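Reopening closed ticket. The problem is back. First fold of the pair:
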Amino acid sequence: MRTAFSEGRLPWWIAVPLAALGGWCFDLANPDTSVWPLVFPSVLLILAAWWQQRPGVAMLAGLAAGSAFWLPHISWLTLYLGPIPWLALSTVMVAWFVLQGLCTAWATRGIRTLPWFRRRPTWLLVAQALTVAGVWVLREGVQGVWPYGGFPWGRVAHVLAESPLSALVSWVGFAGLSAVIVVVCAAVVGGSISVFPCTSSAWRAFIPAGVAVAILAAATLIPVASLPNHESLRVAAIQGNSKSGIFDDRENGDVFADHVRATEELLDALEVDNEHVDVIVWPENAGEFALTDNPLRGREVALLSKRADAQIVIGTVLADPDGSYTNSSVVWGPTGQQQPKETSRYDKRFPVPFAEYMPNRDFFHALVPDLVDLVQLEYRTGTTPTVMPVDTQFGDVLAGIAICFDIIFDEQAENMVQEGAELILAQSNNADFGRTDENVQQLQIARLRAIETGRAVVNISTVGTSAIIAPDGHDIATIPAFIEGAVVADVPLVSGSTPALRYGATISLVWMLIGGAGLLAGGVGLFRLRRSTTRAQ
């Protein structure tokens, strides 16, 4: 009698609960809990549920894993906007998990039916493991670009920002780091439940696990890819602890005033200690609306810049003549906006759908008019360069700018480095998410981005958590959430590209192609099996 176990898969009543447990562990591996070693059992359990599985069970396991992960992981969306946006985004993300489960089951079952692989268990395991990792990277990649520009959150690589494996991201990029973890987990799963247990030497099932442990142990010895640095820039970042959420009770100018006051307090302290800074960074939206068209506020910032003898980089919302808006950052000096104005302005490249603009407004308004009406401004996609020259004692320093969710997109990192960024200023306003996990999840991504690019990252928020992060990922200075304050630190100015930035896109593409090839091979195998079964009947 043929059973699920004899066919190298788990029965549905085991697979679905294991998938749910894996998804829940994956969330625990991420901030705020941050038990990063749980990434291994989480991926193992999810893959075991999908391995050589029947299509319906694989999709059900994907639903279980995706729901157990995404619903708690992005629950911060409910804080101000309620359950509808949370459920909508979660549904899309879970749907990707369901599709990934189907593809993983399809590929692993189909490859196993091919005669060449059936005669060569070791090569069967290699082909299945590589394919499964490729499919995982493919899902992460597509999820990060579609729909509405994508949401590259919740990647396997993100978990490892504070782990001994974080240095790998400077060599292989985010996609490559995800693939490394998934491929070793896939080898363990395949060796344990489908390949070697079916041979005469069942003890060989333990070989993949031993190899995986050895690979991961060796990977912890790999250092961060270092880049040449020249000079050290003294950076100050201001956290105003402002009421800057959508529904916060505040008056026009309060957020601006909070950051002015915090900057004045910093300058008072610097003058007492006879110290200075080379640049001051305010977070996203700290300049509120139309700073460039407000002479009084512009003059106030200019006086602060003159007193500090340093340029100030400020987040502000700017209006276009056509009625659209940009979430922007500008450089301000003692005489106003740094000249030429065209190069001292950055417009956010990745505005957030359903928050900073409303796609298909008429359609969604018919469904949830109250929520759609909350999105009153239509922010357009920025087209300015991703770097801005900031005048310092060393001359113009090229600062890469990432406003809020810009930092989570690989394309933004690639553009900043290609355009010559010597450090990265990641300005954010996390006030809408309160004391939820969102701010520490985003900080985790910023930390990994520092390692990947080899640049210091100044992650500054209106409410925190804010940190100045070194190119190797460690914190140079931090400000706890929900206090007013400033951080000052010396950061290196870096040039060049890490291997991750030179080859990361190619590595990602290769993994996706491997996943696609495995799906094709699996399809061939299943087609041949069906045809032979039909002939036998």
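Second fold of the pair, where the issue appears:
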Amino acid sequence: MIERRRPGWRELSPPLTTTLIALALVGEVLWAALVLTGRIDLSPHGVPAVVAADPVVAESIVRAYDDLPGDPFALRAVPDEATARAALADGSAQAALVVDLTGATDRLLLPTSNDPALDTAVRDRVTRVEQSLGRQVEVATVGPAVADGTRADAYRAVTLSILLGFVVAVGTSLYGGPVVRGRRHGLRRSLLVAGLTIGVGGLLGLWLLGSAAAALACATVALTSAAVALALEALFGWAGLGLSVALFLATGAAVLVRVDPLLVGQPWSTISGLGVPGAGLETALAAGLHDTVALAPLSVVLSWLTTSVLLAVASRWVRGRHDVPVPVAGTPLREIAGERGWRVRVVALVAPPVVTMLALSVVVPAHQVAAAPQIASLAASSSCVATGSVRTVADLNRITQLRGTEEFRGGDVGADALLQDGRRVWLFGDTIQDGPAGPGGVRNSMLITDDRCIRAVVPEGGGALIPDRADGTGPRTGYWPMSVVVDHRTGYDLLYITTQRVRTTGSGAFDFENLGLSVAVVAVTPGGTPQVLDRRDIGPDRPGRENPTWGGATALVGEGRDRWLYLYGTANPGLDQAWGYSLRVARVRLDDLLHADRWRYWTGSSWSPDAADATEVIPARDGVSQTLSVFTRDGRWYALSKRNDLLGSDITVWTAAAPTGPWSSGTAVAAVPQGSTGQLRYMPLAHPTLFPEDGTVVASYSTNDIDVHRVLEDPRRYRPHFVRVRLPR
């Protein structure tokens, strides 16, 4: 019989284990000291937040914020302020940005339950972003005034619960040994540990936080703390208790020094959320502030509890099967140190369910947040170029010969949209600008006109209004406007600009390839400067003219929820004598434009979700140009383009009774002048809202020259020309 005696220090913790634990503890203490003395930058990381605005605006802002370095926010869009306030009240969000595009000021709502340091960090970051967008932000605190004290009580309750569990584990181990000696001993120990931790932990939660949910949270944290310590002890002997201390500190340093885990950055932010202290704090806060059970952090705590129980049970079972000596009090650990392999078997048994539980705990809190492009940039209007009265087509052609501004010397396309304040925006493709080193080019630009002036809309830092895509060191990919749809909303307009993304393939002016559709979203307040909110590539890059370029024309019809946006796609199959482009049609609700999976394509008899099912409504032989105009007037549909694209000579109008056709074979309504040698006349577009007259429409065509040097010498060669054409009956 082995005489019971008090174990010595070397038996309680071998020197190597003691050294490792000491180093871990010193590291944690030093890190905590840095936090307490403010010597590290406490920035927000993954703060759950909501944006309240119209769906497209909210989604665009979510994408912009989501692209900030360091991922300070985990944003999701909500439809209105009431929903945002509800998210703050139930704890699913810790900040809410209420966007008001009718003015230049948004509101940031912060709950009283937040850590004050977190509020300061969130406010500073949001203010900087809002200023970069040319907007101001007002900050308001919402929620009960007692919430501040509740947060402090939650820190105390979780800390004391963890300490309680550890003390109970140490006490039972010192009394009965590090490993249970039999089933009856194990059952008694389990009941004792569970009774003490659940009972005292529940009382702590009830006392400090005052709710049944808080009592449950603290009881669970205390029980889990004891279970973790006992499981590590079962696996590593007395040294397991020291390892449990290091583990709790490693995953809970932010909690123990009362710093919000969302402020400490990586890897501490993630580690805190996956450890018992951090997840326990979130559970206790939800219980104390909202009297609710937060499933996401609670699932993390329960995963630790279940894992610990499995480790303890598996350790005893494997020891028994492989005759591993039980280290009762007085048995040196070195006597069993040679027994190897059993711990590997224990881990192999426990690992599969642990991985499953952790995976489930990660899935529980997941919110869908769209991937983000680069953040929108602040834009301003350039100086006014006086136009005089513009009331006729002749006036339009007169002002196209004005010198222009440094930001716009010449460009093609010229798609337009009428704003609710009476101004008109014009979108251009490749644009000549004057820079410090002389004339240069950008892929797109915007002009805005009123009854007195033409102004260029200039992004912060200059360049294209819709910035080029960041493609690393390879050829640049820019965006050519094709069509623009205006959605008049209360207090502002939203512009949806369909663009083709084009990649440079050489050094010449015509060395490029089309990769597919992109959509830019622009907000314009009455009298304000247009601001780019978002730019979204629709679908993967697919070079080749045989692939339809969707958005070559657009038409918005209907009212309210019954509005449909029709998008027309053009493609050239490369067949002999097929000099034009074929036309296909798709449709989508306007608010769903940026979601390609919600588009539907015309098959000739019905609408299909598969783009491959889209059928030609106008063939490529004698077909349209790549970019064209489709519009409706008095119940009739019109497609205006240049037949056979660059090789054609006539502005042609196709007609139909419906947006899907069947379309007529086309009627030539005006001849396009050939110009002198090297001059190009291409891409006719219709402007239905410009000087409307019954039976006619104002159209424009782009002019250019194959000699780039001639264009740079006189950019007026590279501007639209306007005509009025009669519509066929």
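Update: turned out to be a display glitch only; the data is intact. The mean pLDDT is 78. The radius of gyration is 34 Å. Please close again.
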